[in-house]
User: Fold this.
Amino acid sequence: MRSKWWLSLCLVVLCCGVLWAQGAGITVLVNGAPVNFDQPPIIVGGSVLVPMRGVFERLGADVVWVPDQRLVRATHGDTSIELQLGASTARINGQEHPLTTAAMSVGGRTMVPLRFISQALGADVRWSPSSRTVAIITAPAQAPPPV
Assistant:
């Protein structure tokens, strides 16, 4: 019995270490400005996951956590996004879209796939593997028409 406990503890430490190592040193920029997170980004299945509020709010979205459904709901203008922890799909304006990596809870934070949420909000996303940087670029604000 004691050896099973020890083995379980080792597996948990190993998995956490792998998640941390994969996410170590990832920089996220929104329109050139760095985004700081209380839970560092991680890489799972080739996708960068970040705490939901940091990027959603930086992109101008309102974010709501629905705990009894384990659901993130974000709105920005006419766009509504719903991600449920562990689900393989998300909803954008009520339509289902596949996710390459499901949202998950890490360190008490809801982590969401960065590329998916950024693109759903109309941003361009670029990954630089050499610098481990994700650059998110939103469309520039439209200049008012001349008077």
